[in-house]
Amino acid sequence: xxxxxxxxxxxxxxxxxxxxxxxxxxxxxxxxxxxxxxxxxxxxxxxxxxxxxxxxxxxxxxxxxxxxxxxxxxxxxxxxxxxxxxxxxxxxxxxxxxxxxxxxxxxxxxxxxxxxxxxxxxxxxxxxxxxxxxxxxxxxxxxxxxxxxxxxxxxxxxxxxxxxxxxxxxxxxxxxxxxxxxxxxxxxxxxxxxxxxxxxxxxxxxxxxxxxxxxxxxxxxxxxxxxxxxxxxxxxxxxxxxxxxxxxxxxxxxxxxxxxxxxxxxxxxxxxxxxxxxxxxxxxxxxxxxxxxxxxxxxxxxxxxxxxxxxxxxxxxxxxxxxxxxxxxxxxxxxxxxxxxxxxxxxxxxxxxxxxxxxxxxxxxxxxxxxxxxxxxxxxxxxxxxxxxxxxxxxxxxxxxxxxxxxxxxxxxxxxxxxxxxxxxxxxxxxxxxxxxxxxxxxxxxxxxxxxxxxxxxxxxxxxxxxxxxxxxxxxxxxxxxxxxxxxxxxxx
Amino acid sequence: xxxxxxxxxxxxxxxxxxxxxxxxxxxxxxxxxxxxxxxxxxxxxxxxxxxxxxxxxxxxxxxxxxxxxxxxxxxxxxxxxxxxxxxxxxxxxxxxxxxxxxxxxxxxxxxxxxxxxxxxxxxxxxxxxxxxxxxxxxxxxxxxxxxxxxxxxxxxxxxxxxxxxxxxxxxxxxxxxxxxxxxxxxxxxxxxxxxxxxxxxxxxxxxxxxxxxxxxxxxxxxxxxxxxxxxxxxxxxxxxxxxxxxxxxxxxxxxxxxxxxx
Lengths: 493, 262
Description:
The structure holds 2 protein chains of 2 kinds.
Chain A: H1 2-9, E1 17-22, H2 25-40, E2 45-52, H3 54-63, E3 68-72, H4 73-80, H5 90-96, E4 99-108, E5 111-116, H6 117-123, E6 139-142, H7 143-147, H8 152-159, E7 166-169, H9 171-180, E8 185-189, H10 194-197, E9 200-202, E10 214-220, H11 223-226, H12 230-235, H13 243-255, H14 260-270, H15 286-321, H16 323-338, H17 341-352, H18 356-380, H19 384-393, H20 397-427, H21 440-449, H22 452-480, H23 483-486
Parallel strand pairs in A: 1-2, 6-7, 6-8
Antiparallel strand pairs in A: 3-10, 4-10, 5-8, 5-9
Chain B: H1 4-7, E1 20-29, E2 32-42, E3 47-51, H2 58-65, E4 73-78, E5 81-82, H3 89-92, E6 95-98, H4 110-120, H5 125-139, H6 143-146, H7 155-167, E7 173-177, H8 185-202, E8 206-210, H9 213-219, E9 222-227, E10 230-235, H10 237-242, H11 247-253
Parallel strand pairs in B: 3-8, 3-9, 6-7, 7-8
Antiparallel strand pairs in B: 1-2, 1-4, 4-5, 9-10
């Protein structure tokens, strides 16, 4: 089964430098800077924008699915090496994983806690340790900060903080909560543009809990050999972006809504004096963008649904034939269904890397349950007199399955396939988290930039596609379900 | 695809003997006996009616004969061959089976229901078409009715199609479970005459289950009377009425006043 998956999913791709960024604006801007710079030096490069959280991007780098991405030294020592590697010993530790510690970019972006200036004044809070006196404060932290080793739990321990009401939410959404007064304290990055724009107070880390978060580039040790000249090109960024410069870039992208790619190009031209090489192709228009994503989205849904069908219908038949095996099969596919889609996607990365493969594999697994369950239910639900009729006729088993049982179960099976398809259309939007493209791409970027227009550019076509898929299946019902099953029984004559 | 047993369907040795022989056949469900040891022979070319009240075990006995249920004890022989559910579908194909509901597959037209098994066994299309035409003429169904879906048929039409399906491959015996049970009285009377005529013209060996005394009288050359899973008495109804084996038989047959009612 997995061999079949791999066979289907293996598509040869050219090998440019694959730059990745994490799913927040600053990382994406740096990713654009790196990509643009390489392209200006005539080195083939592509950018996997906002690929995911630290784990996803780091794993992708170690696996070789990604060649370069911007990281922070504090994240490396605390999160990736779990505190076992001192910040000054990162180079050798990375080298052991086949990763080269590239140039330092010149700014720091550490974790910090922030509050609205007015609220902080009213409560008299200047330092993190002041928070101990206010146990009722509502904390809203980015999900990553809640989960990671150097995040909330370590901070709570270091300062002895009593607050229990801690919500994990998207970093950008946390600012909105703060503005609306629904949250009192959020985690922030020290280069966040909102610190100035929203009049926030950054609380002093009086116990020096947070480590140093110096921005660096990580690259695969074999990159220079594969694409000679990359190391020299990347050196051009060493210490060239100081903190005010980075904040300015963040303000341009996040508050002025200038696309990161433009922000990066401006910076390279004005601050680094990089000549504009060949002007890139004009960005595609709206219709073309939607069509392109539709193609990606339909590929994800179509391939995964096809694989689900091929595997799930025989499993459903097996489940209907053998009660014991059936219970086991239904239990297993049921458990798969309960794995949160995000977790399933991330679990696929070590096995299948990033891009369409892990997304299709996850969608394939999600597609199994409705089809297996409905095939099983359709077969088990065949009326007893029809079952007896088939027994009495003495039809050969395969003929009986193909010509009697499956057609009788076809309305139920088709309903299962329809459910799987609609789920797949929705879940495929998460594929963008692992670089699979589709309508999830603008949704993710839209959330990241708080850009409702961009968000709708992904969400509306995705919703329309789900409706379209449902309508298509209603049409398909006419073609697949035998006509005799669609007749409403008339009054007895 | 063809089954060799289909070609040589009637061993010469047993050509004159009974089609079905049951020896001490019993079956219980969850410890409750449905059929107590029953021995009976089904003679060739005659119609045997299994008669009894509901719960008397007559339908269970029919399913044992058809090989749809496994017997707890005893043996069932179809022209000398042992009938068991484990014995596979080949033997069942030599018996035509009809249900009260008709048991027609709703996703196939009436015609496809009739020819389905022949198709599965690889009988040529022309053969199937010819046979379908013969049977339609025999049970007096029009071609337009055969093109319909089962849910579009009346109860009487459904039973006719079900009968055609049972007769399709010229079975050694036709087993019918309450074939007229779900029909209105007028249709029921019509179809009784139809069955008599069809069985008469084909010389069919038939076993038919009913709880209706009048129907047993009309259709049965012989009646096998069942009570609580046991065979009480077997013979022509007139004989049973004249010489009841016990007072229960006499009481049971008291409702019948001699001769086919219709």
